[in-house]
Write a structure and sequence with these properties.
Elements (H helix, E strand, L loop, with lengths): L5 H5 L1 H20 L25 H24 L8
Length: 88
């Protein structure tokens, strides 16, 4: 059975050059990898529409939007992790 390590032990300079060549190929290959500057990410979203006919903006904010925002923030934190509620 041939000794696989014998040529590498007998020629240390060739071994170093071979390792340096593989390292150089790895560096070149690393910079050839495609990288997207803005990756396409889909964040989970929930749309909620609440109406109260005849209510003023202040009434909607205090009696509907406030409690709904607290509930949705708590629910999304429990199921999805940290979340932010955005009103449009």
């Amino acid at each position: 059975m041939p000794n696989l390590s014998k040529p590498f032990i007998e020629r240390p300079k060739a071994t170093i050059l071979l390792v340096a060549g593989f390292f150089g190929l790895g560096v070149v290959a690393y910079f050839q990898l495609p990288i997207s500057s803005l990756p396409d990410v889909d964040f989970p979203t929930i749309n909620v529409y609440a109406t109260m006919p005849g209510a003023s903006a202040e009434n909607m904010a205090s009696s509907i939007a406030g409690p709904l925002e607290k509930f949705m923030t708590m629910w999304t934190m429990l199921s999805l992790g940290p979340a932010k509620v955005v009103w449009l």
